[in-house]
Amino acid sequence: MWLAISLYIVLILVFLLIPPLYDGIERKIRAKLHSRIGPPTPLQTWYDILKLFKKELVITDTGLASVLLSGLLMATVIITAFTLPLGFSTPITSNGSSLVLFTILLIGCQLLWVSLTLTPGNPYATIGVFREALIGMINEFFLVMGLVALMFYTGSSSFDGIIRARPSLTYLLIFALIAVSAFIGSGRIPYDIAEAEPELASGVLIEFSGPLLGITLYSHYLKRAILYGLLADMIVLPLTRIIGIVASALIYPVVVLAIWIVFAVISVMLGRTRVDIAPRSMLKIYIPLTIAMLIAWLVGV
Amino acid sequence: MRVNPLKKSIWVFHLNTGSCNACDIEILDALTPYFDVERFGIKLVASPRHADLVLLTGPITRKTLPKVINALRAVPRPRYILAIGACAVGGGIWYDTYSVIGGVEELKKMLEENGIEIDKIVYVPGCPARPEAIIYGVAVLLGLVEQKVHGEVKIAE
Q1: Mutation target among B50, B70, B117 for the A interface, most CBs of A within 10 A
Q2: For chain B, how many structural domains are there in total?
Q3: Which of A5, A117, A134, B22 is a plausible cystine mate for B128, CB 3.0–4.6 Å?
Q4: Which of A44, A201, A205 sits opposite B9 (nearest CB)?
Protein backbone atom coordinates (compact mmCIF):
# COMPACT_ATOMS: atom_id res chain seq x y z
CA MET A 1 0.00 0.00 0.00
CA TRP A 2 2.71 2.49 1.09
CA LEU A 3 4.84 1.41 -1.83
CA ALA A 4 1.96 2.16 -4.20
CA ILE A 5 1.33 5.57 -2.61
CA SER A 6 5.03 6.59 -2.71
CA LEU A 7 5.35 5.36 -6.29
CA TYR A 8 2.23 7.29 -7.23
CA ILE A 9 3.51 10.56 -5.68
CA VAL A 10 6.82 10.28 -7.54
CA LEU A 11 5.16 9.31 -10.81
CA ILE A 12 2.46 11.99 -10.74
CA LEU A 13 5.15 14.65 -10.19
CA VAL A 14 7.14 13.20 -13.08
CA PHE A 15 4.01 13.00 -15.22
CA LEU A 16 3.18 16.67 -14.62
CA LEU A 17 6.72 17.73 -15.53
CA ILE A 18 7.50 15.57 -18.56
CA PRO A 19 5.03 16.72 -21.26
CA PRO A 20 7.12 19.75 -22.32
CA LEU A 21 10.25 17.57 -22.15
CA TYR A 22 8.63 14.99 -24.44
CA ASP A 23 7.70 17.81 -26.81
CA GLY A 24 11.37 18.89 -26.77
CA ILE A 25 12.43 15.32 -27.62
CA GLU A 26 9.84 15.32 -30.43
CA ARG A 27 11.30 18.57 -31.79
CA LYS A 28 14.79 17.03 -31.80
CA ILE A 29 13.50 13.93 -33.63
CA ARG A 30 11.54 16.05 -36.11
CA ALA A 31 14.67 18.09 -36.79
CA LYS A 32 16.63 14.86 -37.34
CA LEU A 33 14.04 13.74 -39.89
CA HIS A 34 14.42 17.13 -41.63
CA SER A 35 18.26 16.73 -41.61
CA ARG A 36 18.55 19.63 -39.16
CA ILE A 37 20.08 19.96 -35.69
CA GLY A 38 16.95 21.39 -34.10
CA PRO A 39 16.70 22.96 -30.65
CA PRO A 40 19.90 23.00 -28.56
CA THR A 41 18.45 20.68 -25.89
CA PRO A 42 15.27 18.61 -25.40
CA LEU A 43 14.44 21.11 -22.63
CA GLN A 44 13.71 23.79 -25.28
CA THR A 45 9.92 23.64 -24.79
CA TRP A 46 10.43 24.11 -21.05
CA TYR A 47 12.66 27.13 -21.77
CA ASP A 48 9.91 28.51 -24.04
CA ILE A 49 7.22 28.09 -21.38
CA LEU A 50 9.38 29.51 -18.57
CA LYS A 51 10.23 32.50 -20.77
CA LEU A 52 6.52 33.11 -21.42
CA PHE A 53 5.91 33.23 -17.67
CA LYS A 54 8.46 36.04 -17.42
CA LYS A 55 6.88 38.10 -20.22
CA GLU A 56 4.33 40.87 -19.89
CA LEU A 57 0.65 39.93 -20.14
CA VAL A 58 -1.01 41.81 -23.03
CA ILE A 59 -4.72 41.04 -23.20
CA THR A 60 -7.78 42.08 -25.19
CA ASP A 61 -10.92 43.71 -23.75
CA THR A 62 -12.23 40.25 -22.86
CA GLY A 63 -8.90 39.28 -21.33
CA LEU A 64 -10.28 38.65 -17.85
CA ALA A 65 -12.45 35.81 -19.15
CA SER A 66 -9.39 34.36 -20.92
CA VAL A 67 -7.35 34.50 -17.71
CA LEU A 68 -10.09 32.84 -15.63
CA LEU A 69 -10.79 30.14 -18.19
CA SER A 70 -7.09 29.39 -18.71
CA GLY A 71 -6.74 28.81 -14.96
CA LEU A 72 -9.82 26.59 -14.98
CA LEU A 73 -8.51 24.66 -17.99
CA MET A 74 -5.12 24.07 -16.36
CA ALA A 75 -6.76 22.95 -13.10
CA THR A 76 -9.11 20.57 -14.97
CA VAL A 77 -6.27 19.07 -17.00
CA ILE A 78 -4.20 18.52 -13.84
CA ILE A 79 -7.19 16.89 -12.06
CA THR A 80 -7.70 14.67 -15.13
CA ALA A 81 -4.04 13.62 -14.85
CA PHE A 82 -4.70 12.63 -11.22
CA THR A 83 -7.55 10.33 -12.30
CA LEU A 84 -5.32 8.43 -14.74
CA PRO A 85 -3.53 5.29 -13.55
CA LEU A 86 0.19 5.76 -14.11
CA GLY A 87 1.02 2.19 -15.04
CA PHE A 88 -0.56 0.69 -11.91
CA SER A 89 -3.78 0.97 -9.99
CA THR A 90 -4.04 3.66 -7.30
CA PRO A 91 -6.76 4.35 -4.69
CA ILE A 92 -8.18 7.05 -7.01
CA THR A 93 -8.15 4.91 -10.15
CA SER A 94 -9.41 1.70 -8.51
CA ASN A 95 -12.62 3.51 -7.60
CA GLY A 96 -15.72 1.80 -9.06
CA SER A 97 -16.44 4.50 -11.64
CA SER A 98 -12.96 5.96 -12.22
CA LEU A 99 -13.12 5.42 -15.99
CA VAL A 100 -16.44 7.30 -16.16
CA LEU A 101 -14.98 10.18 -14.14
CA PHE A 102 -11.91 10.24 -16.38
CA THR A 103 -14.10 10.32 -19.52
CA ILE A 104 -16.19 13.22 -18.17
CA LEU A 105 -13.10 15.21 -17.17
CA LEU A 106 -11.46 14.60 -20.55
CA ILE A 107 -14.54 15.92 -22.37
CA GLY A 108 -14.60 18.82 -19.91
CA CYS A 109 -11.00 19.68 -20.91
CA GLN A 110 -12.00 19.82 -24.59
CA LEU A 111 -15.05 22.00 -23.84
CA LEU A 112 -12.95 24.36 -21.71
CA TRP A 113 -10.33 24.55 -24.47
CA VAL A 114 -12.99 25.59 -27.00
CA SER A 115 -14.50 28.09 -24.53
CA LEU A 116 -11.10 29.56 -23.67
CA THR A 117 -10.09 30.01 -27.29
CA LEU A 118 -13.43 31.72 -28.06
CA THR A 119 -12.87 34.39 -25.40
CA PRO A 120 -10.51 36.81 -27.23
CA GLY A 121 -13.16 37.55 -29.86
CA ASN A 122 -10.59 37.75 -32.64
CA PRO A 123 -12.28 36.78 -35.96
CA TYR A 124 -9.31 34.63 -37.06
CA ALA A 125 -9.22 32.84 -33.71
CA THR A 126 -12.99 32.32 -33.92
CA ILE A 127 -12.70 30.69 -37.36
CA GLY A 128 -10.00 28.44 -35.89
CA VAL A 129 -12.23 27.56 -32.92
CA PHE A 130 -15.13 26.58 -35.20
CA ARG A 131 -12.80 24.27 -37.08
CA GLU A 132 -11.48 22.80 -33.85
CA ALA A 133 -15.03 22.34 -32.52
CA LEU A 134 -16.03 20.57 -35.75
CA ILE A 135 -13.15 18.12 -35.43
CA GLY A 136 -13.73 17.81 -31.68
CA MET A 137 -17.44 16.92 -32.01
CA ILE A 138 -16.71 13.96 -34.28
CA ASN A 139 -13.58 12.89 -32.46
CA GLU A 140 -14.97 13.09 -28.92
CA PHE A 141 -17.96 10.98 -29.97
CA PHE A 142 -15.72 8.13 -31.11
CA LEU A 143 -13.34 8.59 -28.14
CA VAL A 144 -16.28 8.18 -25.77
CA MET A 145 -17.52 5.24 -27.84
CA GLY A 146 -14.08 3.61 -27.49
CA LEU A 147 -14.04 4.18 -23.72
CA VAL A 148 -17.61 2.85 -23.32
CA ALA A 149 -16.65 -0.19 -25.43
CA LEU A 150 -13.67 -0.67 -23.10
CA MET A 151 -15.99 -0.55 -20.07
CA PHE A 152 -18.32 -3.16 -21.62
CA TYR A 153 -15.42 -5.35 -22.72
CA THR A 154 -13.74 -5.36 -19.31
CA GLY A 155 -17.11 -5.50 -17.54
CA SER A 156 -16.13 -2.65 -15.26
CA SER A 157 -16.43 1.12 -15.19
CA SER A 158 -13.16 1.25 -13.28
CA PHE A 159 -9.59 1.32 -14.61
CA ASP A 160 -9.04 -1.87 -12.60
CA GLY A 161 -11.06 -3.70 -15.25
CA ILE A 162 -8.21 -3.12 -17.73
CA ILE A 163 -5.83 -5.08 -15.45
CA ARG A 164 -8.02 -8.15 -15.94
CA ALA A 165 -8.35 -7.64 -19.72
CA ARG A 166 -7.16 -10.56 -21.89
CA PRO A 167 -5.42 -9.85 -25.19
CA SER A 168 -7.86 -10.40 -28.05
CA LEU A 169 -8.77 -8.94 -31.42
CA THR A 170 -11.63 -6.95 -29.84
CA TYR A 171 -9.25 -5.41 -27.29
CA LEU A 172 -6.83 -4.57 -30.09
CA LEU A 173 -9.59 -2.87 -32.12
CA ILE A 174 -10.79 -0.90 -29.06
CA PHE A 175 -7.13 0.16 -28.58
CA ALA A 176 -6.94 1.19 -32.25
CA LEU A 177 -10.15 3.27 -31.98
CA ILE A 178 -8.90 5.08 -28.87
CA ALA A 179 -5.44 5.49 -30.46
CA VAL A 180 -6.91 7.23 -33.54
CA SER A 181 -9.05 9.47 -31.27
CA ALA A 182 -5.98 10.28 -29.16
CA PHE A 183 -3.96 11.13 -32.29
CA ILE A 184 -6.64 13.47 -33.64
CA GLY A 185 -7.58 14.83 -30.20
CA SER A 186 -3.99 15.85 -29.51
CA GLY A 187 -4.14 18.36 -32.39
CA ARG A 188 -1.61 16.74 -34.67
CA ILE A 189 -1.17 17.13 -38.43
CA PRO A 190 -3.23 16.33 -40.54
CA TYR A 191 -6.01 17.34 -38.14
CA ASP A 192 -4.64 20.63 -36.77
CA ILE A 193 -6.79 22.53 -39.25
CA ALA A 194 -7.49 25.27 -36.72
CA GLU A 195 -4.20 26.68 -38.01
CA ALA A 196 -4.61 25.69 -41.62
CA GLU A 197 -4.37 29.02 -43.44
CA PRO A 198 -1.50 31.51 -43.28
CA GLU A 199 -3.74 34.13 -41.66
CA LEU A 200 -4.89 31.58 -39.10
CA ALA A 201 -1.36 30.54 -38.18
CA SER A 202 -1.18 30.03 -34.42
CA GLY A 203 -4.93 29.71 -34.91
CA VAL A 204 -6.85 29.82 -31.71
CA LEU A 205 -3.93 31.12 -29.64
CA ILE A 206 -3.37 34.25 -31.74
CA GLU A 207 -4.39 36.76 -29.00
CA PHE A 208 -2.74 35.04 -26.03
CA SER A 209 0.53 36.38 -24.68
CA GLY A 210 3.00 35.93 -21.85
CA PRO A 211 1.86 33.80 -18.86
CA LEU A 212 -1.58 33.23 -20.42
CA LEU A 213 0.04 31.63 -23.45
CA GLY A 214 2.41 29.69 -21.18
CA ILE A 215 -0.49 28.22 -19.16
CA THR A 216 -2.43 27.38 -22.32
CA LEU A 217 0.55 25.69 -24.00
CA TYR A 218 1.37 23.70 -20.84
CA SER A 219 -2.27 22.56 -20.56
CA HIS A 220 -2.18 21.51 -24.22
CA TYR A 221 0.97 19.41 -23.75
CA LEU A 222 -0.38 17.88 -20.53
CA LYS A 223 -3.67 16.96 -22.23
CA ARG A 224 -1.64 15.34 -25.01
CA ALA A 225 0.32 13.35 -22.39
CA ILE A 226 -2.96 12.26 -20.73
CA LEU A 227 -4.34 10.95 -24.04
CA TYR A 228 -1.13 9.03 -24.71
CA GLY A 229 -1.03 7.95 -21.06
CA LEU A 230 -4.45 6.35 -21.51
CA LEU A 231 -3.07 4.33 -24.42
CA ALA A 232 0.02 3.43 -22.38
CA ASP A 233 -2.27 2.22 -19.58
CA MET A 234 -4.09 -0.06 -22.01
CA ILE A 235 -0.69 -1.66 -22.74
CA VAL A 236 0.91 -1.58 -19.29
CA LEU A 237 -2.01 -2.27 -16.90
CA PRO A 238 -2.65 -5.85 -18.13
CA LEU A 239 1.10 -6.49 -17.69
CA THR A 240 1.03 -5.61 -13.97
CA ARG A 241 -0.32 -9.13 -13.29
CA ILE A 242 2.96 -10.51 -14.67
CA ILE A 243 5.66 -7.94 -13.96
CA GLY A 244 4.38 -6.28 -10.77
CA ILE A 245 3.64 -2.64 -10.02
CA VAL A 246 7.24 -1.38 -9.61
CA ALA A 247 8.31 -2.58 -13.05
CA SER A 248 5.09 -1.34 -14.68
CA ALA A 249 5.51 2.06 -13.00
CA LEU A 250 9.05 2.24 -14.35
CA ILE A 251 8.17 1.30 -17.93
CA TYR A 252 5.05 3.52 -18.02
CA PRO A 253 6.83 6.86 -18.83
CA VAL A 254 8.89 5.02 -21.48
CA VAL A 255 5.73 3.65 -23.14
CA VAL A 256 4.14 7.13 -23.09
CA LEU A 257 7.30 8.52 -24.75
CA ALA A 258 7.25 5.74 -27.35
CA ILE A 259 3.61 6.50 -28.24
CA TRP A 260 4.43 10.23 -28.36
CA ILE A 261 7.33 9.63 -30.76
CA VAL A 262 5.34 7.24 -33.01
CA PHE A 263 2.55 9.84 -33.33
CA ALA A 264 5.10 12.61 -33.95
CA VAL A 265 6.75 10.63 -36.75
CA ILE A 266 3.35 9.82 -38.31
CA SER A 267 2.36 13.49 -38.27
CA VAL A 268 5.71 14.55 -39.81
CA MET A 269 5.08 12.18 -42.73
CA LEU A 270 1.54 13.40 -43.41
CA GLY A 271 0.29 16.62 -44.99
CA ARG A 272 -2.35 18.85 -43.45
CA THR A 273 -5.89 17.98 -44.54
CA ARG A 274 -8.52 20.41 -45.84
CA VAL A 275 -11.31 21.61 -43.58
CA ASP A 276 -14.05 20.21 -45.85
CA ILE A 277 -12.32 16.84 -46.23
CA ALA A 278 -11.35 16.35 -42.56
CA PRO A 279 -14.74 15.15 -41.18
CA ARG A 280 -15.23 12.75 -44.11
CA SER A 281 -11.72 11.32 -43.81
CA MET A 282 -12.22 10.85 -40.06
CA LEU A 283 -15.47 8.98 -40.61
CA LYS A 284 -13.77 6.82 -43.25
CA ILE A 285 -11.40 5.63 -40.51
CA TYR A 286 -13.83 5.53 -37.60
CA ILE A 287 -16.86 3.78 -39.13
CA PRO A 288 -15.00 0.69 -40.50
CA LEU A 289 -13.02 0.48 -37.25
CA THR A 290 -16.22 0.62 -35.16
CA ILE A 291 -17.96 -2.01 -37.33
CA ALA A 292 -14.90 -4.30 -37.15
CA MET A 293 -14.83 -3.86 -33.37
CA LEU A 294 -18.52 -4.77 -33.03
CA ILE A 295 -18.16 -7.83 -35.31
CA ALA A 296 -15.09 -9.04 -33.40
CA TRP A 297 -16.97 -8.57 -30.14
CA LEU A 298 -20.07 -10.45 -31.36
CA VAL A 299 -17.94 -13.26 -32.79
CA GLY A 300 -16.01 -13.36 -29.53
CA VAL A 301 -12.45 -13.14 -30.82
CA MET B 1 14.02 42.86 -17.30
CA ARG B 2 17.37 41.97 -18.84
CA VAL B 3 17.94 40.01 -22.03
CA ASN B 4 18.90 36.84 -20.11
CA PRO B 5 15.48 35.08 -19.90
CA LEU B 6 15.29 35.16 -23.68
CA LYS B 7 18.81 33.84 -24.19
CA LYS B 8 17.58 30.28 -24.68
CA SER B 9 14.26 31.04 -26.34
CA ILE B 10 13.48 33.95 -28.63
CA TRP B 11 10.36 34.08 -30.77
CA VAL B 12 10.44 36.37 -33.78
CA PHE B 13 7.70 38.13 -35.71
CA HIS B 14 8.28 39.27 -39.29
CA LEU B 15 7.06 42.82 -39.94
CA ASN B 16 7.32 44.32 -43.43
CA THR B 17 6.87 48.09 -43.32
CA GLY B 18 6.93 48.68 -47.08
CA SER B 19 10.18 47.10 -48.14
CA CYS B 20 11.04 45.96 -51.67
CA ASN B 21 10.85 42.35 -50.35
CA ALA B 22 14.56 41.63 -50.83
CA CYS B 23 15.23 41.65 -47.08
CA ASP B 24 12.06 39.62 -46.52
CA ILE B 25 13.32 36.92 -48.86
CA GLU B 26 16.59 36.89 -46.91
CA ILE B 27 14.62 36.51 -43.65
CA LEU B 28 12.70 33.58 -45.13
CA ASP B 29 16.05 32.16 -46.22
CA ALA B 30 17.40 32.52 -42.67
CA LEU B 31 14.37 30.59 -41.39
CA THR B 32 14.81 27.63 -43.75
CA PRO B 33 16.20 24.26 -42.56
CA TYR B 34 19.51 25.17 -44.25
CA PHE B 35 20.30 27.78 -41.59
CA ASP B 36 18.22 25.98 -38.91
CA VAL B 37 17.77 28.90 -36.50
CA GLU B 38 15.98 26.58 -34.08
CA ARG B 39 19.56 25.74 -32.99
CA PHE B 40 19.59 29.09 -31.18
CA GLY B 41 16.08 28.74 -29.75
CA ILE B 42 14.72 31.07 -32.44
CA LYS B 43 11.17 30.37 -33.60
CA LEU B 44 9.00 32.25 -36.11
CA VAL B 45 5.58 33.13 -34.71
CA ALA B 46 2.53 34.45 -36.56
CA SER B 47 1.20 36.78 -33.88
CA PRO B 48 3.00 39.81 -32.39
CA ARG B 49 1.49 38.84 -29.02
CA HIS B 50 3.74 35.75 -28.99
CA ALA B 51 6.86 37.59 -30.13
CA ASP B 52 9.95 38.75 -28.29
CA LEU B 53 11.71 40.23 -31.29
CA VAL B 54 10.30 42.02 -34.33
CA LEU B 55 12.21 41.49 -37.59
CA LEU B 56 11.50 44.86 -39.14
CA THR B 57 12.19 45.48 -42.83
CA GLY B 58 11.51 48.52 -45.00
CA PRO B 59 11.75 52.30 -44.55
CA ILE B 60 8.33 52.49 -42.79
CA THR B 61 5.96 54.11 -45.26
CA ARG B 62 3.36 56.56 -43.98
CA LYS B 63 0.66 54.12 -45.12
CA THR B 64 1.99 51.29 -42.93
CA LEU B 65 2.91 53.47 -39.92
CA PRO B 66 -0.37 53.07 -37.92
CA LYS B 67 -0.28 49.28 -38.46
CA VAL B 68 3.40 49.14 -37.44
CA ILE B 69 2.62 51.05 -34.22
CA ASN B 70 -0.33 48.71 -33.49
CA ALA B 71 1.78 45.62 -34.12
CA LEU B 72 4.59 46.85 -31.86
CA ARG B 73 2.10 47.79 -29.13
CA ALA B 74 0.82 44.17 -29.23
CA VAL B 75 4.28 42.75 -28.49
CA PRO B 76 4.60 42.03 -24.74
CA ARG B 77 7.64 43.48 -23.00
CA PRO B 78 10.54 43.00 -23.11
CA ARG B 79 10.19 43.83 -26.79
CA TYR B 80 13.11 44.09 -29.19
CA ILE B 81 13.51 45.23 -32.77
CA LEU B 82 15.98 43.92 -35.33
CA ALA B 83 16.12 46.62 -38.02
CA ILE B 84 17.04 44.63 -41.12
CA GLY B 85 18.43 46.20 -44.27
CA ALA B 86 19.53 49.70 -45.23
CA CYS B 87 15.93 50.97 -45.41
CA ALA B 88 14.98 49.87 -41.90
CA VAL B 89 18.29 51.11 -40.46
CA GLY B 90 18.13 54.64 -41.85
CA GLY B 91 15.62 54.90 -44.68
CA GLY B 92 18.08 53.76 -47.34
CA ILE B 93 17.67 55.51 -50.68
CA TRP B 94 14.20 56.67 -49.54
CA TYR B 95 15.42 58.42 -46.37
CA ASP B 96 14.09 61.89 -47.31
CA THR B 97 11.25 61.04 -49.67
CA TYR B 98 7.70 62.21 -48.98
CA SER B 99 6.07 58.81 -48.41
CA VAL B 100 8.37 57.30 -45.78
CA ILE B 101 9.34 58.29 -42.26
CA GLY B 102 12.93 57.18 -42.85
CA GLY B 103 13.94 54.21 -40.78
CA VAL B 104 13.68 52.88 -37.29
CA GLU B 105 15.20 55.92 -35.52
CA GLU B 106 12.26 58.09 -36.57
CA LEU B 107 9.90 55.27 -35.63
CA LYS B 108 11.45 55.10 -32.17
CA LYS B 109 10.61 58.76 -31.55
CA MET B 110 7.01 58.22 -32.66
CA LEU B 111 6.69 55.12 -30.48
CA GLU B 112 7.92 57.09 -27.47
CA GLU B 113 5.27 59.73 -28.18
CA ASN B 114 2.69 56.90 -28.14
CA GLY B 115 4.04 55.51 -24.86
CA ILE B 116 5.49 52.37 -26.46
CA GLU B 117 8.91 51.50 -25.12
CA ILE B 118 11.38 49.42 -27.11
CA ASP B 119 13.87 47.66 -24.85
CA LYS B 120 16.62 47.28 -27.44
CA ILE B 121 17.17 47.87 -31.15
CA VAL B 122 19.86 46.06 -33.14
CA TYR B 123 20.79 47.26 -36.61
CA VAL B 124 21.59 44.83 -39.43
CA PRO B 125 22.60 46.93 -42.45
CA GLY B 126 22.83 45.61 -45.99
CA CYS B 127 20.91 45.84 -49.22
CA PRO B 128 19.65 43.23 -48.71
CA ALA B 129 21.03 41.99 -45.40
CA ARG B 130 22.41 38.47 -45.71
CA PRO B 131 20.85 35.59 -43.71
CA GLU B 132 24.13 35.13 -41.81
CA ALA B 133 24.04 38.82 -40.84
CA ILE B 134 20.44 38.49 -39.61
CA ILE B 135 21.35 35.50 -37.43
CA TYR B 136 24.45 37.36 -36.21
CA GLY B 137 22.23 40.34 -35.32
CA VAL B 138 20.03 38.11 -33.13
CA ALA B 139 23.17 36.65 -31.53
CA VAL B 140 24.38 40.19 -30.73
CA LEU B 141 20.98 41.01 -29.24
CA LEU B 142 21.05 37.93 -27.03
CA GLY B 143 24.62 38.57 -25.95
CA LEU B 144 25.89 35.35 -27.55
CA VAL B 145 28.54 37.37 -29.41
CA GLU B 146 30.05 40.72 -28.58
CA GLN B 147 28.97 43.81 -30.47
CA LYS B 148 31.90 45.03 -32.60
CA VAL B 149 30.58 48.50 -33.45
CA HIS B 150 30.38 51.06 -30.65
CA GLY B 151 28.67 54.39 -30.28
CA GLU B 152 31.77 56.57 -30.44
CA VAL B 153 32.75 57.84 -33.87
CA LYS B 154 36.46 58.27 -34.66
CA ILE B 155 37.29 60.69 -37.44
CA ALA B 156 40.65 60.36 -39.18
CA GLU B 157 42.75 63.55 -39.32
Answers
A1: B50
A2: 1
A3: B22
A4: A44
- Split into its structural domains, chain A has a count of 1
Q: What is the 3-state secondary structure (H, E, C) of A42-67?
A: CCHHHHHHHHHHHCCCCCCCCHHHHH
Range(s) of the domain holding residue B104: 4-142
Local confidence pLDDT in tens for the 157 residues of chain B: 454 667 889 999 999 999 999 999 999 999 888 999 999 889 988 889 999 999 999 999 999 999 999 999 999 988 999 999 999 998 889 888 999 998 898 899 999 998 899 988 999 999 999 999 999 999 988 888 888 877 777 777 7
User: Hey, how many other C-beta atoms are within 10 angstroms of the C-beta on A25?
Assistant: 21
Q: Which residues of B touch A201 (CB under 8 A)?
A: 46-47
- Å between B10 CA and nearest CA of chain A: 8
> Is position B100 within any domain?
yes
- Strands B10-16 and B42-44, sheet pairing: parallel
Tell me the residue range of the domain where A89 lies. Answer: 2-299
Does B96 map to a domain?
yes
Q: Which residues of A touch B38 (CB under 8 A)?
A: 27, 31, 36-39, 44
Which one of A39, A50, A57 has the shortest CB-CB distance to B38? A39
Find out whether A184 and A267 touch, Cβ atoms under 8 Å.
no
Nearest to A207 among B11, B39, B49 (CB): B49
The CATH code of the domain that includes B91 is: 3.40.50.12280
CB B65 within 8 A of CB B114: no
Q: Is the ipTM of this complex over 0.90?
A: no
